[in-house]
Amino acid sequence: MTNGARNPDPFPAFAFELRITGLAVGGFSECAGLQLETEFQEYSEGGENSFVHKFPTRTKQGNITLKRGIVDRSIWDWYWDLTQGAVAPRNASIVVYDPARKNKIHWDLVRALPCKWVGPDLNATQNSVALETLELCYQRILYRR
Q1: CATH of the domain at 74
Q2: Among 75, 78, 110, 125, which is least packed by CB within 10 angstroms?
Q3: What Rg, from alpha-carbon coordinates, does the chain have?
Q4: Domain containing 92: what range?
Q5: What letter does residue 50 receive in the DSSP assignment?
Q6: Distance, C-alpha 35 to centroid of its chain
Q7: CB distance 129 to 106 below 8 Å
Q8: What is the spatial distance between Cα 132 and Cα 107, in angstroms, rounded to a whole number?
């Protein structure tokens, strides 16, 4: 039985942006890796042979992989500084918009660091955009709407 309220449509996967505190990063064409996974400890209770207890332990998050056309040096500079010992974690947000760009959901990445940078594949026989890939690791993820 419904109460007459309309369920909201799902958010589209193409209307998103990444915000990194202190960096003007521009738009990314792809974002992958938003995931959490909880590990479980199994415990076999003595005398109970029909099941094994499973207790949640630690939750870990995957790294976020982002792709964009190379437009400036901000991502490179942040990663390069890290390789030179200047560890500068930054808070970041992945923001997804509805089609009207009014409602949005956020995944806030706390104390994010660039853990991998991949430069473009260059090919003089193709007419494609030079893409860079950035992989972010982070301490914690928060979801808000």
Answers
A1: 2.30.110.20
A2: 125
A3: 20
A4: 16-34+53-144
A5: S
A6: 8
A7: no
A8: 22
Structure tokens at 129: 């955009």
Token duo for residue 55: 């207790």
The encoded tokens of residue 106 equal 């956020």
What ranges in the chain are assigned the alpha helix state H? Answer: 74-83
Domains of the chain: total: 1
Along the 145 residues of the chain, how does pLDDT read in single tens digits? Answer: 455 556 566 666 677 888 888 876 767 888 999 999 999 999 999 888 899 999 999 999 999 999 988 877 888 899 999 999 999 999 999 888 887 777 688 899 999 999 999 988 888 888 888 888 999 999 999 998 8
Q: What is the C-alpha to C-alpha distance for residues 63 and 35, in angstroms, rounded to an integer?
A: 8
- Name the nearest CA neighbour of 134 among 4, 29, 61, 21: 29
For the chain, the residue count is 145
